[in-house]
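Friendly challenge for the regulars: who can give me the C-alpha cells for this chain first? No prize, just bragging rights.
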Amino acid sequence: YASCREALSRSRDQSTAPFRMRAMTSVLMSAASGMSRRALVGGAALTLWRMSADVASAAEQNPLGALPFQVGGRLVYGKEDLMKQKSHGTTEKPVQQQLRWGVDHDTADRICSFNRHYAEYAGYWKNTNYLKEVDRNQPTVYYDSVSGKPLFVAPIGRSLDEFLAESASHGWPSFRDQEVVWENMRVLQNGEAISVDGTHLGHNLPDRKGNRYCINLVSVAGKPEEKTG
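First reply, four minutes later:
Bragging rights claimed.
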C-alpha cells in the first residue's frame, strides 16, 4: 500500500510540475515588465560607461595609439636553436653602423652577436646621449640593434620617471611584460632575453612586481628597419 501511495504522489507531482513552471515563468515575466524604463536605460548607460572605460584604459596602456605591432602580453619562451651560430656570431649580420644615443658600435656588436652571458657595465646607459635625447612626452620604441625590429615600447603603465628610476636602481634599462613586443623577443629557459634573430639582449630577473627584463642599451639602440643603412 505504501509503495502505491508513493507512486501516486510522484505521479501527482509530475502532473502539476508544468503548471508550477508556467506560474513561476509568469511571475518572472511580470517582475521584468514592472522594471522602470529608467532602470533599463540606466543599465544600458552603465554598460556603455564600462565599455568607454575599457577603451580609455587601453589607450592609457598604449599612448602611442595604433602601432603596426602588438605590445604587451604574457612571457613567450624561445628555443636554444635561436642562438645557433650564423654568419656573424649568433646573428646573420653585424649591428647597424649608426646606432642611437651615441652607443659604441664595437661594444654593441660584441654584446649582441658574440656573447651569451656578459653585459655593458652597470650605468653605461647614463653615460650615453640617452638621457638627453629620450622622448619625455611619449613612450620610446626600442629597436633591435641588428635587425631594426621593435623589441620594447616604454614606458607603458608607468611614468618615464618611474621607468628611469627603476633602470637606475638596477643599472640597466628595465622593461616589464606590458612593454615587450613579443613577436620579436623571446626568453630562454635560463632567463636569457634574446631577439628572434639571435641578438643577445640581456636577462629576465623577476622581482616582487613580476618579470623584469634587464636589457643592454647597446642591444636596443637600433633604428627602424626601413631607416637602416
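Strands lie at 140-143, 150-154, 174-175, 185-187, 192-195, 200-204, 213-215. Residues 24 and 30 are 10 Å apart (CA to CA). Your move, everyone else.
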